[in-house]
Amino acid sequence: MEYKKSYWGLCFWLIAFLAVCFAVLLLPVPGMAMMRITINLCSVGMAILAWMVYINGYVYWYNGVSFEEARDAGEERRRQYALKHVRVFGIFAVCGLLFSALMQLLHISEWVDFVVLTIGLIAAAISTIRFKL
To answer: Which pLDDT score is estimated for 32?
Structure first.
């Protein structure tokens, strides 16, 4: 199968992500709990995007990889590269959800989740810079 350049999946993910974000606003949730839900939605959304890249092999969606580099790398190298991203963002999303559940059970401020998960998501993204195709 020929490797073709396409951004339809990325556009679909972005539209779906924004739709879910807006839909969450309709949930009957106490004000500050919305922050906890939103930051977890972001981390899960990034994990889903990484999984989509892995499934489709569109690693050029990531910063620093051109379509030509991705095409020339071959399917196996693209899959290995994408799997590394899935692991980082997937593990982070699961840990973030567990952390938020614990903070909710302990009645700790949602601001703790916001700070920890925001810094964690940035750190996860920065940690993927070391991955080479």
So the answer is: 75
